[in-house]
Amino acid sequence: MLIKNPQKYFSGPYIIKDSGEYIREYTEKPLIIGGERALKAAYGQLKEALDSVGITPVAVETFTGFPSERQMRNYEEQVRSSKADCIIALGGGRSLDAAKAAALYADVPVITIPTVAATCAAWAALVIQYDDEGSYVGRILLKESPRLVLADTSVMLRTPRRYLFSGIVDTFAKFYEVRPVFEGDPSMIHMDVAFHATKIAYDRMEKYTFTALEEAEKGIFGQAAKDIVDSVVYLAGFAGAFQTQTGGYCFAHPFYHTSARYPSTRHRMHGEKVAFGILTQLFLEKKDESYIKEVVAQFDRYDNAFTLEDIGLDRDDDELLMRLANEIKTLFTHVSWSAQDIVSSMKAADLLVKNYRNDR
Prior knowledge:
This protein has helices spanning 20-24, 36-52, 69-82, 93-106, 153-156, 161-184, 189-217, 223-239, 252-259, 270-284, 289-301, 308-311, 318-331, 339-359, and strands at residues 2-3, 8-12, 30-35, 59-63, 86-91, 110-114, 126-130, 136-141, 148-152, 242-243. Helices cover 55% and strands 13% of the residues. Helix 3 (69-82) packs across helix 4, helix 6 packs parallel to helix 10 (270-284) and helix 10 packs across helix 14.
């Protein structure tokens, strides 16, 4: 069993503007990479923090597109040519992953500053690689997690609700995916720990999400906001820190990664596609339909109860759905269900969401 976690994690309001002393422990000449919205939201505060400790970035690069091999290698070359000693990455999962891979290739540390609570990418010693068009290529295991993670609740809770809700459902997925692995062999201590971490995150998000949002609208970023951000970044990231063969990927994330190869689905965020993957997984597990309907209702509270059409897939195109199911099995060999069972479960999930909407 191999465990990879950051050296330091800080969360709370206005962390970025007070981060100079933390960052100075790791860099004197950073390359900064961030998405356009992330730089607008956070770079002013970051620059102020860096100026306060005499750090001048070698460059500030705006990330667009997907974390592809080309993007990663371009940033690696910038690190080498500028003699940067660290990468500071701001943004969501794509920009953070591109920066983490570039740091791996250039053999420098990386500091992550998530600006949306949409995934646990800021924590994970893992990169999801795509091609330039947005199709899933594979996973890159990193030598280490980011050295420092700065999760600023006053930035992350100001983003549109869609981003937060996507991140919450993606974190719910960690619970739903770890649970069957844990139940299959509860003697594995790392799965016991991972399961209980995801359960804590699940319970905190269910209890505090809407309180955190109501307070954020008033400019308050208190314990509720911290609990939500810590659940999405820290607890979900920690649950995934055990890099073993048992994993916790089950089905929902394989569905996301594989469906991302279909351009018609790319209007949907990570957690939104994962949400449909969870419902499909529950049918594959043969959970009682009344229980799955409760999960649909739960997801609906977070605007994440979707049909196949919502995801960008045609329910009536059996050839397409079978191709998707076979690709899931090819890309993720641990998925043991048959392709036909996967297609049938996708259709069952689709129908249940449609019936739920009609009954509301």
